Amino acid sequence: MSALRLRAALFLFAATLAAPVASAQEPAAEEPVAQEDAVAADSLQSVLDDHWAWSLEQSPVFATSLGVRDYDDRLGDPSLEAADRSAAKTAEFVERLEALDASAMSEIDLINYKLLLLDLQNDLEAAQFGGKYLLMTNRGGPHRTVAGLPDRVPFFTLADYESYIARLNDAPRYLEAATETLRAGAEAGWTQPCEPMQGVEESIRFHVVEDANDSALMKPFAAAPATISTRNWRQLKADAADAIDDKVVPALAAFADFYANEYAPACRQDVGASTLPDGADYYAHRARVFTTTDMTPDEIHKLGLSEVARIRSEMQKVIKQTGFEGDFKAFQEFLRTDPQFYAKTPEELMAAAALVAKRADGALPELFTRFPRMPYTVKEVPEDIAEGTTTAYYEPPAGDGSRAGVYRVNTSLLNQRPFFELEALTLHEAVPGHHFQIALAQELTLPNFRKYGGFTAFVEGWGLYAESLGRDAGFYQDPYSNFGRLSYEMWRATRLVVDTGMHAKGWTKQQAVDYMAEHTALSLHNIEAEVNRYITWPGQALAYKMGELKMQELRRRASDALGREFELRQFNDALLENGAVPLSVLEENIDAWIEAKQN
């Protein structure tokens, strides 16, 4: 799965701040412009520029990652007051866009106009619900914003380290504001369910250490850059240690106490979003946003059941190829327990993942004609979250080129991380999946909100589609690896069933776990972690299969229409050439591409 996220988590602004473009000559001081004339003088470009500048101000750590240093001393504002200001500003941007004359726009400007308006309208609709209270999931929260800083900001210059220390000193304010928001959420009935949040307290206290030198936050000080003097380096290390000892650790300890004594006791017993205030409408909204369709949860559920049946038939054929004697359940047990399928050490698993990644790099010319310049690397999932999170994920590169993309592999609980999943997993998270798509998007000539944002149905749909491209590039030759591919596709099909089941149909967590265990080859620990994720992040899991189905449909359409003139590399280029767009826009783009190829 991706980190991405991309809009969500934390999806994803990253680029240099565009300079505002004036749309009209300034009037003389003695002749002030009437309000109606000021509105008329507005332009799409000025809205895009103003919106991007505002977005960076709201995401100061992200702004730093792309070279905008105006907000280097802060972590952001998780307060309810900030959420209200954000909603008001979003409404202001919508009003400015709707006042523009869309009929006079160029084709390119009209697309940018519609996509930004859709983005903002989705945010306004979301503001009607209590999602602003849900600052925590079972995978992260305000404490991870602080603890994850070493992996999110640059460390090259003296100013970089000074910025980092300033943010460490800002941690008490940030965590206190987050605490107040979470407390208000508990009072309003907007909390996470109890079951999936088990273990979160331990992930917070992991960073409450006796000595700053034992903190992961001191990782950036392992080696001094050549550009920093010995004297300055000693002072920086001392200042960082003081900030961790005096500010960060006490703030994290207080946050852990709040979580244990107030938030966890206020958790919900039911797992479905429908049990929240206005929960049914909230989940329907989440489903529309994450799938970029108007399908209802019930329609999505039925589609999932159909996909599960189709993939199950393919799985049975692959089992026969292995020569295994026994039924489907026995084959699942064999895959989950036989030692031949599992690494004995973290190093062995990392080496295997790196080998698949390098083979995938070499296969890219068979699948594309355009490639991103930004590289990626392979790293382990951080220890504090490893056991409670998924089997792997992706972290996008910094927009200013200071940090490569990262394919994170989970090396905890090795008997739950089978080799037969590695090909599909790596193709999804690294290349031709998330890294290829996201790094390439950052190099496109697009407005920044499209370069570094996007729609989850496209981003995650592309990741699943990328798994299928392995068949075109010579992967999945081993029947067990091919079964792993099908198991991963089944995993995403079951998401349509269990996510809607829990959040719209009253399913329990155990029903969801049992359903996924029955139909996939995923380890039981991974299934548990995944279902916990779906519970605390309603609707996001729907994006993968919905996006992939549309991309496969468009590939068949293009192949049928073009016949012998169809070339997969050019089709894949066409899928990616406009960034991460809604599925309806993607369909329009590919239909236009087919028509152009025919003519």
Q: Which percent range describes the beta-strand content?
A: under 5%
On the 0 to 100 scale, the average pLDDT is 92
* Cα separation of the termini: 39 Å
Tally of separate domains: 2
Gross geometry: globular
| Extended strand count | 3
Number of helices: 24
Low-confidence spans: pLDDT under 50, at least 5 residues? Answer: 1-40
**Major β-sheet strand ordering:** 1-3-2
Helix content: 55-70%
Task: Jot down its keywords.
single chain; 599 residues; mainly alpha; 2 domains; three-stranded mixed sheet; 57% helix; globular; disordered N terminus
Q: Explain this structure to me?
A:
By secondary structure, the protein is mainly α. It folds into 2 domains: 1-20 and 33-135 and 292-599, no CATH class; 147-269, no CATH class. The chain contains 24 helices and 3 strands. The chain has helices at residues 35-40, 44-58, 60-65, 80-98, 107-126, 142-147, 158-188, 200-205, 230-263, 279-291, 297-322, 328-337, 346-363, 383-386, 422-429, 434-441, 448-451, 456-469, 479-504, 509-519, 524-536, 543-562, 568-576, 583-598, and strands spanning 376-380, 392-395, 405-409. A 3-stranded mixed sheet has the order 1-3-2, covered by helices on one side. It is globular and about 65 Å long. The protein starts with 34 loop residues before the first helix and ends with a helix. Residues 1-40 have low confidence and may be disordered.
